[in-house]
Design a protein that fits this description.
2 copies of one chain form a homodimer. In chain A, helix 7 (about 130-145) links the parallel strand 5 and strand 6 (about 150). The first copy, chain A, is an alpha/beta fold. Chain A has helices at about 10-25, 25-30, 55-60, 75-85, 85-90, 110-120, 130-145, 165-170, 185-195, 200-210, 220, 225-235, 255-265, 325-345, and strands at about 1-10, 35-40, 50, 95-100, 125, 150, 175-180, 250, 270-280, 280-290, 305-310, 315-320. Helix content of chain A is about 40%, strand content about 20%. A 6-stranded mixed beta sheet of chain A has the order 3-2-1-4-5-6, sandwiched between helices. Chain A has a 6-stranded mixed beta sheet with strand order 8-10-9-7-11-12.
């Protein structure tokens, strides 16, 4: 089977995803009988390209001028036209929109519209953007079910470390009652540094130099990134319908240095902990600085490491820990979601033709 | 679909599995459209029972005399006859042999024969016994593929914590280069206790009282249990074909107390670490006492906790940590393997889908 991909967003993650696809091409063909072809790319500033016969992302990546379309379409209109032009692939369940635009922390747009439009066009959707799951998981999951297509977002939390996959594929008969985790690398790195006497600014600069923190680090240090991840996990694991704004939120400031050092001196650790739990019929979610006992697994999560501890009914607590991170991890998240789709496609015929195909 | 189960072994794990099935009956029916029926039970000392119309494990559990068969069959012969009598269910891919006999550390028998016989009879096999994967994974996996049936053993390591599932279902495009872990609760509990001045004997008695350690604890304290788990993981994750005898092995003795205390005094921890890695074309596996730096995730694995750290090519290191254990965990492992089969059965015809068939 040939899987047709439409890339919406073509930054570093998408580019690494493309090279990773090439590196794992043999695995895809041998283990899944699947060949992958890129049929469309929409970038923010470097134009758009589309051809049902396939496009060359390598050539596109090096070109600086807009291609194919002189007046670029909006990204939503691009997806609408691309899925319409690929309707045969869409009908056969082998069209996938790979969404890697950046997070908008106010409303999660236009990523949510990208997902909706792709599903309406009969495509599966894979995204590394936290927005759709953090702001609109319930509606988008329902839209995906109705369309008989997948909406997957493994890369939204802990890069490629399989947290959503873990729950969906391996804990199917387990109920998750809550979770606690350290899910933002920049703030964890800053806290670890400040404990040891490094200044807030110096630790932040180090993370920016390594490409982990953004030039505008406010999403990280203000706790918004962690809040978006917390909302996404609460929505998926606990069936909540919250947004990042509903997450009680605290960030990391230079003022936390003294507290981090005092905690450390007494054998404890100051950590920015993301957590959520059911409280009656509601879900309470928060991101807060907490002083943890040394025996707490999260206390030992250092520097760029991330971890999530799931509290379950049958298996007590299960922790999954990410020891390293980076571009390849996030790119792998997209690949792993793609493989989930390919495995599904090879196992069963697609459901009835998706609604809204006539867009 | 109705799944017919043949239980081979009917100790505490199997009994908890049966009650867990009842507890999750609604989930099975609603989420999977599956009803589960027990058609046969073979015990070691309390006889055997079989009926294609279903048997009552509750009644059987309370009866002490052998039932149905006055002269019990061998367990292998029981499986042969049971699969033959259930051949319609077997042909339809809805017959599952649930194997929970105890580990034989010399050869892994008769569990291996149980698996072979079940697969040959067209049944899927689920086992909590480490033996088959530790001694004969390659041959049994091949037999399963040839039969178009599953051979699953999530409970062999870390009870129900999904370590085999994690790799199989969520790390499909990742190569595992090696692993390190703490996989035996009894020895880890003893080491933690001895660090704090508890005697070896007292810690061991405590584990026996809690039902974690066996009356004959030699498999645990001599490192054999950990070696069997190491062999199973090496065989599955690294494609090895080793047995527990090929694992370089060390156990925990009262003499380790002083070393554990000295390590602790200097901020380090003495742990019984199971590990394996590829070395050229061979796989080197061992179970050994190691002094770990405090920053090592395994150093913080206390008491009955277990953990495995996978070293991968794309995602660096991923750790999965079990914070608690017990009978329900192991019973869940069987249930989770059963659900893997049910999901497969509902997605595709029991025989491998023909290649190249359109989506």
């Amino acid at each position: 089977v040939t899987i047709d991909l439409v890339l919406v967003g073509f930054g570093n993650v998408a580019k690494r995803f493309v090279t990773l696809l090439a590196e794992r091409d043999a695995t895809l063909r041998r283990d899944y009988g699947a060949a992958v072809r890129i049929v469309g790319i929409a970038t923010k500033r470097h134009g758009q390209i589309f051809s049902t016969r396939g496009v060359d992302p390598g050539a596109f990546a090096t070109a600086s001028a807009p291609r194919e379309t002189n007046r670029p379409l909006t990204s939503v209109e691009f997806i609408r036209r691309a899925t319409r032009a690929s309707r045969a692939a869409a009908r056969q369940g082998r069209l996938v929109v790979v969404e890697t635009t950046t997070l908008d922390i106010r409303r999660g747009e236009p990523a949510i519209a990208h997902v909706r439009t792709a599903l309406a066009g009969g495509a599966h959707v894979v995204t590394a953007n936290k927005g759709p799951a953090a702001f609109a998981h319930r509606a988008l999951a329902r839209a995906a079910t109705q369309a008989g297509r997948r909406f997957l977002f493994e890369g939204a939390v802990m890069d490629g470390i399989p947290i959503f996959n873990l729950v969906r594929e391996t804990l199917t008969a387990v109920n998750v009652a809550g979770f606690r985790g350290i899910v933002n690398s920049t703030t964890n790195f800053i806290l670890t540094g400040m404990e040891q006497g490094q200044s807030f600014e110096s630790a932040l600069l180090e993370m920016q130099a390594r490409g982990i923190a953004e030039a505008d680090p406010s999403l990280d240090v203000d706790g918004w990134d962690a809040a978006a991840k917390t909302a996404a996990m609460a929505n998926v694991f606990l069936g909540a319908a919250i947004t990042p704004q509903d997450v009680q939120r605290e960030g990391v400031t230079p003022a936390a240095a003294a507290r981090a050092q005092t905690a450390r001196a007494s054998g404890r650790r100051l950590k920015l902990v993301a957590s959520a739990a059911r409280e009656g019929r509601r879900v309470r979610a928060r991101v807060a600085l907490e002083e943890l006992e040394a025996s707490d697994l999260l206390a030992g999560v250092e520097g760029q490491q991330n971890a999530v501890i799931l509290r379950t009914d049958l298996l007590d607590e299960i922790a999954i820990v990410q020891q390293g991170g980076g571009l390849t991890h996030t790119a792998y998240a997209l690949l792993s979601d793609l493989l989930t789709i390919v495995r599904g496609a090879s196992r069963r015929p697609p459901r009835a033709a998706p609604r809204g195909r006539s867009l």
